[in-house]
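Subject: design request, 109 residues
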Protein backbone atom coordinates (compact mmCIF):
# COMPACT_ATOMS: atom_id res chain seq x y z
CA UNK A 1 0.00 0.00 0.00
CA UNK A 2 1.12 3.53 -0.70
CA UNK A 3 0.85 4.54 2.96
CA UNK A 4 3.40 1.91 4.02
CA UNK A 5 5.76 2.82 1.19
CA UNK A 6 5.67 6.48 2.18
CA UNK A 7 6.42 5.61 5.80
CA UNK A 8 9.35 3.44 4.70
CA UNK A 9 10.63 6.15 2.39
CA UNK A 10 10.61 8.72 5.19
CA UNK A 11 12.39 6.31 7.52
CA UNK A 12 14.94 5.35 4.88
CA UNK A 13 15.89 8.96 4.21
CA UNK A 14 15.31 10.21 7.77
CA UNK A 15 12.70 12.73 6.63
CA UNK A 16 10.01 14.48 8.63
CA UNK A 17 6.52 14.78 7.22
CA UNK A 18 7.34 18.44 6.57
CA UNK A 19 10.49 17.47 4.62
CA UNK A 20 8.51 15.12 2.41
CA UNK A 21 5.73 17.68 2.03
CA UNK A 22 8.19 20.24 0.69
CA UNK A 23 9.59 17.72 -1.78
CA UNK A 24 6.10 16.71 -2.97
CA UNK A 25 4.76 20.27 -3.05
CA UNK A 26 2.01 19.62 -0.50
CA UNK A 27 1.32 20.34 3.16
CA UNK A 28 2.55 18.20 6.02
CA UNK A 29 -1.12 17.48 6.76
CA UNK A 30 -1.40 15.88 3.32
CA UNK A 31 1.58 13.62 4.08
CA UNK A 32 -0.03 12.70 7.41
CA UNK A 33 -3.25 11.83 5.57
CA UNK A 34 -1.31 9.65 3.12
CA UNK A 35 0.38 7.77 5.93
CA UNK A 36 -2.93 7.32 7.75
CA UNK A 37 -4.59 5.95 4.64
CA UNK A 38 -7.13 8.79 4.64
CA UNK A 39 -6.04 9.86 1.18
CA UNK A 40 -3.47 8.98 -1.47
CA UNK A 41 -1.01 11.29 -3.17
CA UNK A 42 -1.75 12.59 -6.63
CA UNK A 43 0.48 11.42 -9.45
CA UNK A 44 2.26 14.79 -9.58
CA UNK A 45 3.37 14.41 -5.96
CA UNK A 46 4.44 10.81 -6.57
CA UNK A 47 6.48 11.92 -9.59
CA UNK A 48 8.24 14.64 -7.56
CA UNK A 49 9.09 12.21 -4.77
CA UNK A 50 10.30 9.53 -7.19
CA UNK A 51 12.45 12.03 -9.09
CA UNK A 52 13.99 13.45 -5.91
CA UNK A 53 15.14 10.03 -4.70
CA UNK A 54 15.79 8.47 -8.09
CA UNK A 55 13.06 5.87 -7.58
CA UNK A 56 10.51 4.36 -9.89
CA UNK A 57 6.95 5.51 -9.32
CA UNK A 58 6.11 1.84 -8.79
CA UNK A 59 8.33 1.86 -5.69
CA UNK A 60 5.85 4.29 -4.17
CA UNK A 61 2.60 2.97 -5.66
CA UNK A 62 2.88 -0.81 -5.61
CA UNK A 63 2.46 -2.99 -2.58
CA UNK A 64 5.85 -3.55 -0.93
CA UNK A 65 7.37 -1.24 -3.55
CA UNK A 66 9.97 0.12 -1.15
CA UNK A 67 10.97 -3.42 -0.14
CA UNK A 68 12.37 -4.13 -3.60
CA UNK A 69 14.99 -1.43 -3.31
CA UNK A 70 18.26 -3.23 -2.77
CA UNK A 71 19.14 -2.92 0.89
CA UNK A 72 22.82 -3.68 0.38
CA UNK A 73 23.32 -0.50 -1.63
CA UNK A 74 24.57 2.50 0.31
CA UNK A 75 21.73 4.73 1.42
CA UNK A 76 21.51 7.62 -1.05
CA UNK A 77 22.11 10.95 0.61
CA UNK A 78 20.23 14.11 -0.14
CA UNK A 79 21.94 17.46 -0.03
CA UNK A 80 19.92 18.12 3.14
CA UNK A 81 21.85 15.35 4.91
CA UNK A 82 24.93 17.57 4.81
CA UNK A 83 23.13 20.39 6.60
CA UNK A 84 21.48 18.53 9.49
CA UNK A 85 20.20 20.99 12.05
CA UNK A 86 20.14 23.90 9.62
CA UNK A 87 16.75 25.25 8.69
CA UNK A 88 16.97 25.57 4.89
CA UNK A 89 13.98 25.67 2.59
CA UNK A 90 13.76 23.31 -0.37
CA UNK A 91 14.54 26.26 -2.67
CA UNK A 92 17.66 27.13 -0.67
CA UNK A 93 18.85 23.52 -0.77
CA UNK A 94 18.28 23.44 -4.53
CA UNK A 95 20.33 26.63 -4.86
CA UNK A 96 23.14 25.05 -2.81
CA UNK A 97 23.03 22.00 -5.08
CA UNK A 98 23.15 24.18 -8.20
CA UNK A 99 26.16 26.01 -6.79
CA UNK A 100 27.91 22.71 -6.00
CA UNK A 101 27.25 21.56 -9.58
CA UNK A 102 28.65 24.85 -10.87
CA UNK A 103 31.83 24.38 -8.80
CA UNK A 104 32.22 20.82 -10.13
CA UNK A 105 31.82 22.11 -13.70
CA UNK A 106 34.82 24.39 -13.19
CA UNK A 107 37.15 21.48 -12.39
CA UNK A 108 39.86 20.74 -14.89
CA UNK A 109 39.93 17.14 -16.05
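Subject: RE: design request

Done. Sequence follows.
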Amino acid sequence: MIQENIKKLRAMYDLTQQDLAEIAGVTNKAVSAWESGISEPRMGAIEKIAARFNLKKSNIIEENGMDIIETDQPKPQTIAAHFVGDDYTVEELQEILRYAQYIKSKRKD
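The CA atoms of residues 72 and 105 lie 31 Å apart.
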